[in-house]
């Protein structure tokens, strides 16, 4: 008797272990037959109850029926679980499959070029300054010696917010804001967005510039040439040929434009350089005394140099891109290349 009771408990325990370790519904079905089937372990057990002394039979019979019911429930439960859950087979990892790459973002090419420009100029000794994109007529034009009738003020070029407020058309406005705050020596660069009513292959209504300003006693055009030559050689390559061509800006005197030998045709003349062999990259000059007077600097003591460049233009020349709009279309196939 003792032996039989122990055995049913053992069977019960083993059956539960097997259910626990089964990994698919097929093995549960097989287990169910092995234990509860017509010739199953439990069924046989019940049959053999007649071998027990009559007084023990009801008690043991009751227990075996309990076990039977409990196992039946456990099998059904396990079947449900395994049929809704993918079998362990599906979890196996095929190490020969190519891995799933994590898409990684990167800096926009314009940001990269802006940072490169700033890094070179910071090494030369410039600090970084910023100013507002929504600017007053005073800082954007008036204080920079751009008179009321200057073509740059034309409604076609400038986004006017009101009579007196504009979206800055250049970062030169920061020059005035900086000089109002600091006494020389001043050595700053100002990167930022600028806005003009213009849109074609080489112009977008919003683009980026980096402005440079250096004011101290004894600053000369030679300093301007030295700084910009060093800059160009670092930005492009050391062998880049450049020239300073006389030009006009209301806020500098003398004014110059810095051209580099066309990076596409090396000076032979092509579509990119409009068959001139040269590409204009920087506007520059010596700060006009009228600008100094507007900020209260002593024009007999100080001289200064200033320059401004378009970031998109430099990026286009560096990477050989012929349409400025590509930078702002947000096509990741284009942007991913940088
Ligand atoms: N502000 C000019 C422009 O938008 C560029 C420029 C020219 C900046 C000469 C300067 C400068 O500081 O000295 O085209």
Give the topology, please:
Layout: H1 2-21, H2 25-36, H3 41-47, H4 57-84, H5 88-91, H6 109-124, E1 127-128, E2 134-136, H7 137-140, E3 165-167, H8 173-181, E4 186-195, E5 206-216, H9 221-235, E6 242-249, E7 252-261, E8 278-287, H10 289-295, E9 303-310, H11 311-319, H12 332-335
Parallel strand pairs: 1-4
Antiparallel strand pairs: 2-3, 4-5, 5-9, 6-7, 7-8, 8-9
3,4-dihydroxyphenylalanine (DAH) binds next to strand 8 and strand 9.
What does this structure look like?
The protein is an alpha+beta fold and 338 residues long. It folds into two domains: 84 residues; 227 residues, Bira Bifunctional Protein, Domain 2 (BirA Bifunctional Protein, domain 2), CATH 3.30.930. It contains twelve helices and nine strands. The strands form two sheets. A seven-stranded mixed β-sheet has the order 1-4-5-9-8-7-6, with helices on both faces. A hairpin with a 2-residue loop joins β6 and β7. α2 runs antiparallel to α4, α6 packs across α9 and α6 crosses α11. It is rod-shaped and about 130 Å long. The model has no long low-confidence stretch (mean pLDDT 91).
């Amino acid at each position: 008797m003792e032996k039989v009771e122990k055995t049913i408990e053992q069977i019960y325990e083993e059956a539960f272990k097997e259910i626990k370790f089964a990994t698919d519904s097929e093995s549960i079905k097989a287990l169910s037959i092995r234990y509860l089937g017509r010739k199953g372990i439990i069924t046989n057990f019940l049959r053999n109850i007649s071998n027990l002394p009559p007084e023990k039979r009801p008690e043991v019979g009751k227990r075996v029926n309990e076990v039977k019911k409990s196992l039946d429930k456990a099998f059904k439960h396990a079947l449900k679980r395994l049929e809704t859950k993918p079998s362990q087979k599906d979890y196996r990892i095929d190490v020969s499959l190519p891995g799933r790459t994590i898409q990684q973002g990167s800096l926009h090419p314009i940001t990269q070029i802006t940072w490169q420009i700033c890094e070179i100029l910071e090494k030369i000794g410039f600090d970084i300054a910023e100013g507002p994109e929504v600017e007053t007529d005073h800082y954007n034009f008036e204080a920079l010696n751009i008179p009321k009738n200057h073509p740059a003020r034309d409604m076609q070029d400038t986004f006017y917010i009101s009579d007196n407020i504009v979206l800055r058309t250049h970062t030169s406005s920061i020059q005035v804001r900086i000089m109002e705050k600091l006494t020389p020596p001043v050595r700053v660069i100002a990167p930022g967005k600028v806005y003009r009513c213009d849109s074609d292959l080489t112009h977008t209504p919003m683009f980026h510039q980096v402005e440079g300003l250096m004011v101290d006693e004894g600053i000369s055009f030679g300093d301007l040439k030295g700084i910009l030559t060093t800059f160009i050689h670092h930005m492009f390559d050391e062998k880049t040929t450049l020239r300073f061509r006389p030009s006009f800006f209301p806020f500098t005197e003398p004014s110059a434009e810095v051209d580099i030998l066309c990076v596409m045709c090396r000076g032979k003349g092509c579509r990119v350089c409009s068959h001139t062999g040269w590409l204009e990259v920087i506007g520059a000059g010596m700060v006009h005394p009228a600008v100094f007077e507007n900020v209260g600097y002593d024009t007999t003591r100080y001289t200064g140099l200033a320059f401004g460049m378009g970031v998109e233009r430099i990026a286009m020349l560096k990477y050989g891109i012929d349409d400025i709009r590509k930078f702002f279309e947000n096509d990741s196939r284009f942007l991913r290349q940088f």
